[in-house]
Design brief:
By secondary structure, the chain is an alpha/beta fold. Helix content is 36%, strand content 18%. The strands form four sheets. Strands 11-10-12-13-14-16-15 form a seven-stranded mixed β-sheet. α10 links the parallel β12 and β13. α1 crosses α4. The longest helix is centred in the first third of the chain and has 29 residues.
């Protein structure tokens, strides 16, 4: 009975923490209070609620990726059942493998009587005092092997999770590449593009973190900053703060961007309005031009075309509007949140020239297993478009690992990335 009460209390405590993060700390974070600390608390709560979250997601109870009452009830019920099973199994394990040795001593009989040893339930006379300590089990016993293996596995998982949660998730890497572009005007040779993707300012990522990204980007002296979508996560309230922070980017030529699927899920028009208010053009299904004298304009007959398409999942990709009517000899840079656009039959049929596509969306999988890669990439083509420079059917694609996180607030062996790409004339 005592063990059952402990299991119940542990189950209720975990679910109470989940409720606090969902109903209280998440709202404080949205209001801008204590985001640096609350981001970790909200992240821990989300990890704990993953069983219920996963069931609700795959059961179709979260249309449009929003919580509904059926999804909420399903999630709560699943978490209660899951943690009852987990803590119940842990209690049984502790009794079977974590208790005292099956060989123990017992003081028996009246004062002065001979002490006995109890072994496998049978009393064995002993000439030694009752307080004598018995030799421990053999270090190579099956029981010790099972216990040791279990503890090692649990410790390894806990250590990797802790590092991915507290360390690697916010330890961004600055990557640098130099790419040659055919027909790039000599005056544009050496053009520096800094790509930022998947910032996901939301319940796990603070606005202070976003400002740190902006400050680091400015120190890289970019000519152009390319934003490839997913600026917010779990709250349309985050659109204005992140757009305002992005307005502090100091690119010599300018900053341009496209929308991502999460921006549409959190109210696409809110995001568009916020970026327009802060002077950052979103070029979904349109284009701008960098002239040879390094000015950003709406029309030009020479220079570099910087085009964008809408999100592949939640918007339309109108390739003719983005790339059509451009001078045939002009090189073209295409911003697409989802790298799978490079394989789209409609894109391939369009025949439009693209010299380099910049994408994000995959986060590099967030978790990568050595020798295997990322188990989940959110790409139809698996590992091909997980991260880095990839050769698509008609053009090279650079897939940025992104800076934020979704689904799980963890990164393991996939550091956040700020990508620096210097263009040279081929």
């Amino acid at each position: 009975m005592k063990r059952t009460r402990k299991v119940l209390w542990c189950t209720l405590a975990v679910n109470a923490l989940i409720a606090v993060t969902d109903l209280f700390t998440a709202h404080l974070h949205q209001l801008g209070y204590g985001q640096s600390v609350l981001g970790y608390i909200n992240g821990a709560g989300h990890i704990l609620q993953m069983p219920g979250f996963t069931v609700a997601e795959f059961s179709g109870l979260r249309p449009g990726h929003y919580w509904t009452w059926p999804a909420f009830i399903c999630g709560v019920g699943m978490n209660l059942v899951f943690y009852l099973i987990v803590f119940g199994a842990w209690a049984r394990w502790a009794i079977k493998f974590g208790g005292p040795s099956s060989i123990k001593q017992k003081r028996g009989g009246p004062e002065g009587s001979q002490p006995v040893l109890v072994k496998d339930g049978n009393s064995v006379p002993s000439d030694e005092p009752a307080v004598r300590t018995l030799a421990p089990e053999s270090r190579f016993s099956r029981r010790r092997l099972v216990v040791g293996t279990g503890r090692l596995a649990a410790g390894s998982v806990a250590a990797a999770t802790a590092w991915g949660f507290f360390g690697e998730a916010r330890w961004f890497e600055i990557t640098q590449r130099t790419l040659r572009i055919k027909n790039l005007p000599p005056m544009l040779s050496g053009l520096r593009i800094v790509q930022l993707s998947d910032i996901h300012h939301g319940t796990w990522m603070s606005i202070e973190w976003v400002r740190q990204i902006v400050d680091t980007t400015n120190k890289l002296a970019p000519d152009l900053v390319a934003l490839t979508g997913d600026y917010v996560y779990r709250g349309s309230q985050y659109a204005e703060p992140v757009a305002h922070a992005m307005a502090s980017l100091r690119a010599k030529i300018g900053t341009v961007g496209v929308m991502g699927n999460h921006d549409w899920w959190e109210g696409g028009n809110n995001c568009k309005i916020a970026f327009a208010r802060n002077g950052i053009p979103l070029i979904d299904n349109t284009r701008l031009f960098i002239t040879p004298d390094r000015k950003l304009t709406e029309r030009a007959s020479e220079g570099l075309c910087v085009a964008g398409v809408g999100d592949m999942w939640e918007d339309k990709c109108l390739y003719d509007l983005a790339l059509g009517g451009v001078s045939g000899g002009m090189p073209r840079l295409l911003l697409s949140h989802n790298p799978d656009v490079a394989e789209e039959p409609e894109f391939l049929r369009s025949g439009h020239r693209v010299d380099l596509m910049l994408s994000g969306h995959t986060h590099g999988g967030q978790i990568s297993i050595p020798g295997i890669g990322a188990p989940v990439t959110n790409s139809q083509y698996g590992q091909k478009y997980a991260k880095g420079l990839v050769q698509g059917p008609t053009c090279p694609v650079y897939v940025n690992r992104g800076l934020g996180m979704t689904v799980m607030p963890i990164r393991i062996a996939v550091r956040p990335e700020i990508a620096v790409i210097d263009l040279l004339t081929a």
